[in-house]
Design goal:
By secondary structure, the chain is an alpha/beta fold. It has one domain (5-249): Aldolase class I (TIM Barrel), CATH 3.20.20. The protein has ten helices and eight strands. The chain has helices spanning 17-28, 48-51, 79-82, 94-99, 104-116, 129-133, 137-148, 178-195, 211-218, 235-249, and strands spanning 5-10, 37-42, 58-62, 88-91, 120-125, 161-164, 202-206, 225-228. It has an eight-stranded parallel beta barrel with strand order 1-2-3-4-5-6-7-8, surrounded by six helices. Helix 1 (17-28) runs parallel beside helix 10, helix 7 (137-148) packs parallel to helix 8 and helix 9 (211-218) runs parallel beside helix 10.
């Protein structure tokens, strides 16, 4: 089987519903359908209804979810509420972990809830700068994967995508070199093969991904896509990253 790429954009707390519609309509005209290419955007919750069914070639994801189906959880959004609005959902993004104090157990509950309700979870893992400089990157990643994937049935493993995001490279303008990224992606690949033999889980790289570095990152053996932050907010930049994937697919 040939290569497949997921090019995903996390919009974080940007874009109104109207801006989201305008963006997706414009983006859909910037690239062709191609075998092996999946494009996903993660708008804010408030835009999900506005962009539903807008462009078949742009898949929609939610940025977060709560692990309970319903209940007295003011301000939270359940997986049941996301059904029909989003296909994918981010779990364990570093900003959720760092700013909102989500731990690995919380992430595991969310991932299992996503799978239960037919959503495709994108599990984010990554290390801080002190952990990177202290040589603890692989231990951190191993621990995050082990805890987040606890209780996942092997038959559902292929519904999961993993995104490696070195926290020190998110929004800082610094990015892991392609070699550094490949090293961690290879490690993740081996961990996943050990836990789920024969799995086809895609592993994305996230952390200051730009048009200028996307082609080299996507060229690495164990990188099967990118999770883009700031550059996904501009049609021309995000489209250029998509075209890096298309080029490598020969499309």
């Amino acid at each position: 089987m040939g290569r497949e790429y997921v090019i995903a954009g996390n919009w974080k707390m940007f874009k109104t519903a109207a801006e989201s519609r305008e963006f997706i309509q414009a983006l859909a005209g910037e690239f062709p359908d191609a075998p092996g290419l999946t494009v996903v955007v993660f708008p804010p919750f408030t835009s999900l209804e506005a962009v539903r069914g807008l462009a078949a070639r742009v898949h929609i994801g939610a940025q977060n979810l709560f692990h309970e189906e319903k209940g007295a959880f003011t301000g939270e959004v359940s997986p049941l509420m996301l059904h029909g609005l989003a296909e994918y959902v981010l779990v364990g993004h570093s900003e959720r972990r760092e700013l909102f104090h989500e731990n690995d157990e919380d992430v595991n509950k969310k991932l299992l809830a996503a799978l239960k309700f037919g959503l495709l979870p994108v599990l984010c893992v990554g290390e801080t700068l002190p952990e990177r400089e202290g040589g603890r990157t692989l231990d951190k990643i191993r621990n995050q994967l082990e805890k987040a994937l606890a209780g996942v049935d092997g038959g559902e493993a292929d519904k999961i995508t993993v995104a490696y995001e070195p926290i020190w490279a998110i929004g800082t303008g610094r990015n892991a070199t392609p070699g550094q990224a490949q090293e961690v992606h290879r490690f993740i690949r081996l961990q996943l093969q050990e836990k789920f033999p024969g799995n086809r889980i895609k592993i994305l790289y996230g952390g200051s991904v730009k048009p200028e570095n996307s082609l080299e990152l996507l060229s690495q053996d164990d990188i099967s896509g990118v999770l883009v932050g700031g550059a996904s907010l501009k049609v021309d930049q995000f489209s250029a990253i998509i075209h890096s994937g298309l080029k490598l697919l020969g499309a």
